[in-house]
Amino acid sequence: MRYLAVILSLFLACVLANRSFGHYGPDGTVLFLNGFHFVSGRTSWRISANHYCVIVSDDLLQCAVYNTNTSPALLVGVEYIVSRKAFQSLPAEERQLWHSHAFEVTSGFLIQPQLPEPVDHTIMKDVLVDTYGKTFQTWRYDKQNSPVPLGIPELVMGYTADEQIVPDFVQSRDGLFGCNTTFIRESRQDIRPMEVLQGADSWKHGFVLTLGLVNETCETSFTSQNDTDASWWDFTIDWENIWHGGKRLLGARRRPRHKRVVGTRIKESWIYRYGANLEHRGVRYWLCKICHIKKSYSTALYASSGTAHAARHLLRQHQIAESGERISGLKTPFSLASGSTSSSFSPASQLPLQQQTNLGYQIGSHFDEESWKARFVDWIIVEDVTFRQASGERLRWLIANGGELASRLLPEHHTTICSWIRRSFESRRHIIAELVKNAKSSVHISFDLWTASNAFNYLGTVGHFVDQEGKKRDVLLGLPRIIGPHSGENIAYHVKEVIDQYELGSKLGYFMLDNAKSNDACLETLIRWFPMDVNRCRLRCIGHIINLVVRAVLFGSNVSKFEAELRVATDEFKFDIWAKKGAIGRLHNIATYIRRTDQRRQVLRRLQTELAGDDPIFTLEIVVDGKTRWNSIYMMIKRGEFCHV
């Protein structure tokens, strides 16, 4: 923490002389920090921690952690913050208790409420970004509602990636302190942390460290060897649970390095930092340490004399590359399943689904991958889930971070989900209301009608303004359902409800709308409640204007007549009408003809494959233009050109 005393004394003495951190904290507090912790091994056990920090030396800060910065507050933990230099001097076993602050700083998760941005930026960049923290939660997360602190303190860690924490938790903190994590992150883009030292954030590598027997997460044995030695990653193997291909390998043992490389400068492969080299009946195996510690025995062992399979496993299952960096994003839901602590579903396959869910974390010895895949596919088919939804990042995050408590949280009725969504909407709406309230500019409005898949009609209403930080914002203010006719007067009543909800009457600016006559009538109705010069405030969408011009260029000046003829014509006569519109009309007819039957689409796919020869190709469907889809004619031409139509 270079220049720690100088920086804090220069900035904080003058800036914070008349500021209050709150009612708590030790004498001599020079920093007030708010950040996010989680109980080691349980990223879903989230904690918003308020730190009151004092300087012990140039290499050490000590912080009292409270649950709130207002009265009354509880002392819930303590954190020690050390410099990079001090962390480097720690032994290997000690380092596993510490977490890095690099991501917390650059992500905006770690904040200094009420400090001016230049001061905050300097302290984060020159003092905190390359520090490390060791934090103990003395008021346990699972006992937080008790009147007194119970149980043994918990070791807590810091987040190292966005997907590890839910956005609602961050937004709740932002609302409490009147800040915006996104803006803070943008202002810190120039902060470049040094590489995180080995041993910190050990939970990412399968080390879940706990205190005593009260915590039920898995234990880790320490070693005292130097951290530059690959054997520092050594671990205790449960020889009774060495599984491969559904069979237990009794008599497996560690395979020593070949005598020709022992004592030489030939380095051991990086995969052995995360696993062990085993041998059974003359066959070589690699045992994944992370899977083995998590008791995912069925996916922990690989038969291979090389390193490729192990490297692929570490990348796909645990997102660990050769450099040791964590690669964000999980490739498939199955990669999460194979690293799960769940047990085999086979013994309980005949039980009711709810009982199977509860037993998933209790039964048996190893995870049944095929059974899990089968149930996953059944879910996709029965619930009509799209492939993209089933492989989406948010679903993968829920599976990876749910843990044992997820089965208790899963709703059993759709109304529960509805109430969750409503509560989430209300909490976020309050954040938007604050943004709009503090806007530096007028709030300009755009709205348009939208039809959902259930044929319900909604009015999407968006506000455009410059916020108090000088940033241009485009936010969805409301999506009310339109009941009744799509007349200008009826639309105006729904727009008025949105404006009143955010108290925007005095801050209204321009209205950017398409050229429909109902929008003119809407503004004429709105002036009953909100005085405005309609001719000045009513702006017409340039996109609609350009679209009308282009259609006139393509189909002639009398486009309305052309479209009217299409509306009343039979399918046979529609071909004749389109044929008179030149090359684009003929292409439309060809595309329509091909798409009418699956047999014709099969012929198109076969022709694409034949033209590709030996080169692999993804076959593409022909595209037909649509009146309401802008650029659809362009997309039809591009696809037709690609498919040689």
TrEMBL record:
<dbReference type="InterPro" id="IPR010686">
    <property type="entry name" value="OBAP-like"/>
</dbReference>
<dbReference type="InterPro" id="IPR012337">
    <property type="entry name" value="RNaseH-like_sf"/>
</dbReference>
<dbReference type="Pfam" id="PF06884">
    <property type="entry name" value="DUF1264"/>
</dbReference>
<protein>
    <recommendedName>
        <fullName>BED-type domain-containing protein</fullName>
    </recommendedName>
</protein>
<keyword id="KW-0732">Signal</keyword>
<comment type="similarity">
    <text>Belongs to the OBAP family.</text>
</comment>
<feature type="signal peptide">
    <location>
        <begin position="1"/>
        <end position="17"/>
    </location>
</feature>
